[in-house]
């Protein structure tokens, strides 16, 4: 199932209006252009998880709320068949699927699907405020972190600060599947 970009945009706009911020204020806070924020709010463009994370932080709402509008409870059951899959597109270098959503937690697990080498056009590293834990489920990647390239394969793990520039780079045309857990460190 594809997450509706229009739905994501509506949630962001709703949260922004509720917080009484202008597009320019949120864009400045996130280090993005007002034009990009407008396109996201209007459902006209897919956005990197790091960008959506920055926007949700600026609006003081969980990323999971932005990605999924189901009511929150203290028990979150999310069968595979009901999981929304594939936010993003190959031109971003990956797509991702949110594994759990809860406004009560500062932990957000996702699976990142790193696109094959020949279709991966993403070269600029990302930053975001959360710490990040990754576990390679399938395939292999190069983790570009703070200017250094680290080879990682199935079973390897890493934990790092999201504020440092990082990027998952595909090793081959098989792509990779990476369990990623965003953790709000509170610092």
Automatic annotation (TrEMBL):
The record's listing under CDD domains reads: cupin_XRE_C (cd02209), HTH_XRE (cd00093)
The record's section on PROSITE patterns has: HTH_CROC1
> Which GO molecular function annotation, any one, does this entry have?
DNA binding
Under the heading Pfam families, the entry gives: Cupin_2, HTH_3
What do the Gene Ontology cellular component annotations say?
cytosol
- SUPFAM superfamilies, A to Z: lambda repressor-like DNA-binding domains, RmlC-like cupins
The record, for InterPro entries, names:
Cro/C1-type_HTH, Cupin_2, Lambda_DNA-bd_dom_sf, RmlC-like_jellyroll, RmlC_Cupin_sf, TransReg_Diox_bact_type
Q: Where is the HTH cro/C1-type domain?
A: 12-66
Signal peptide (residue range): none
Keywords for this entry? DNA-binding
Q: What is this protein called?
A: DNA-binding protein
